[in-house]
Design a protein that fits this description.
By secondary structure, the chain is mainly α. It has helices at 26-36, 48-55, and strands spanning 9-10, 15-16. The radius of gyration is 19 Å and the shape is elongated. It binds iron/sulfur cluster.
């Protein structure tokens, strides 16, 4: 969705009423997330899900420490 089509867009001031940013290119979206974090990126941004999946570890890559690894006899 573009900002111009969004109910949260303040046309008079040319900005989002929620304070979000909605860049059109993936490069711009990636740079925004690197600097300001994912919360700054509009939830309607077309690149959001891809950027989240790139930055999140897969469930099978997660490891949970049991604390027993450091205990050796
Ligand atoms: S940044 Fe997102 S929420 Fe804000 S006006 Fe644009 S489309 Fe709407």
């Amino acid at each position: 969705m573009t900002c111009e089509d969004c109910a949260l867009f303040d046309a008079e001031n040319g900005r989002c009423r929620s304070g979000k940013v909605n860049p059109k290119s993936r490069v711009q979206a990636s740079e925004l997330v690197s600097v300001l974090g994912i919360r700054a990126l509009c939830t309607f941004n077309q690149h959001r899900e891809a950027l989240i999946s790139v930055r999140s570890p897969k469930a099978d890559q997660l490891s949970v420490s049991t604390g027993s690894e450091s205990r050796t006899a």
